[in-house]
């Protein structure tokens, strides 16, 4: 069973499903991260912010924008996982640098495809802290996409696409290539088997890598997507404005980001590995071996 499980191949859509499942579990932390990153003064702590939202809006307010978060994962993560897995099947990706290269290209494609849903996700999460007269009040993700298109134009849907793509490249390298490499290394030892304990350890290490790599880009991306038209002249202008708060301004929200990304990455790969184990398919050469073994 262990050998068959190890050789099973994930279907192209497993990454999107696993990411959506993880997003359902960690969405409140993602919302808190967005709120902290869009603060200009940086006075409110994570705990104070949580209490403030629950007190004013109720517990369900922590799930504001969930539909956009799910749409983002079903576009962004499905794309990056599908391209990564397909490329690995056609390229001898045993070396780490090949995994990184494949992950970078896959992440760039996924980041661009997921930008519109990501933008609506950020706006819906940030809406509840705005005064009533300034709220956008998107009914759901699709309504948000349509209203941005109708009111601000199609180009606005891809506002922040460059930073979203940059972050997606780093995210995919940190998650997919590091997870694969770490898993390959630990399975070569006699201490680990291809089981949930190994998946947990490898995904935890990949999650730490992701947090350190992506946080500065994530802050800039969030501010650009949440900005009103004309608030920032360019990405560089947003970077300069953020830098006025000092170097730590680029790591605003790092605590909820880490608290969210670590369990999100762990859940993502546990879900992904279970989908692969139970619903993945064997490559043709393994099927032939099974048939030969029955003869």
TrEMBL record:
The keyword Lipid metabolism does not apply. GO terms for cellular component: membrane. Its main location: membrane. It is a multi-pass membrane protein. Keywords: Membrane, Repeat, Transmembrane, Transmembrane helix, Transport. Solcar repeats lie at residues 6-90, 94-185, 194-278. It is found in: Membrane. Gene3D superfamilies: Mitochondrial carrier domain (1.50.40.10). Belongs to the mitochondrial carrier (TC 2.A.29) family. This is Mitochondrial dicarboxylate carrier. It comes from Acanthoscelides obtectus (Bean weevil). The lineage of its organism: Eukaryota, Metazoa, Ecdysozoa, Arthropoda, Hexapoda.
């Amino acid at each position: 069973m262990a050998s068959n499980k190890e050789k099973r191949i994930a279907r192209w859509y497993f990454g999107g499903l696993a990411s959506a499942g993880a997003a359902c579990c960690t969405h409140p932390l993602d919302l808190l991260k967005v709120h902290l990153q869009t603060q200009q003064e940086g006075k409110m702590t994570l705990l104070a912010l949580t209490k403030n939202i629950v007190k004013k809006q109720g517990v369900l307010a922590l799930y504001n924008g969930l539909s956009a978060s799910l749409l983002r994962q079903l576009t962004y993560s499905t794309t990056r996982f599908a391209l990564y897995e397909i490329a690995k099947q056609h390229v001898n990706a045993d070396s780490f640098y090949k995994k990184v290269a494949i992950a970078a290209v896959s992440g760039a494609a996924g980041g661009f495809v997921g930008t519109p849903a990501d933008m609506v996700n950020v706006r819906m999460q940030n809406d509840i802290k705005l005064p009533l007269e300034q709220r956008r009040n998107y009914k759901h993700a699709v309504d948000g996409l349509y209203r941005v298109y109708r009111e601000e134009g199609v180009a606005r849907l891809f506002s922040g696409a460059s930073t979203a793509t940059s972050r997606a490249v780093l995210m995919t390298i940190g998650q997919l290539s590091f997870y694969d490499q770490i898993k390959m290394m630990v399975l070569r030892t006699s201490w680990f088997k291809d089981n949930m304990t190994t998946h947990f350890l490898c995904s935890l290490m990949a999650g730490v890598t992701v947090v350190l790599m992506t946080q500065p880009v994530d802050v800039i991306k969030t501010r650009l997507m949440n900005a009103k038209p004309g608030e920032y002249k360019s990405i560089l202008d947003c970077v300069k404005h953020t830098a006025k708060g000092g170097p730590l301004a680029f790591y605003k929200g790092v605590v909820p980001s880490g608290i969210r990304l670590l369990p999100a990455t762990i859940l993502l790969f546990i879900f992904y590995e279970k989908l692969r184990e139970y619903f993945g398919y064997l490559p043709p050469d393994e099927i032939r071996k099974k048939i030969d073994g029955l003869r």
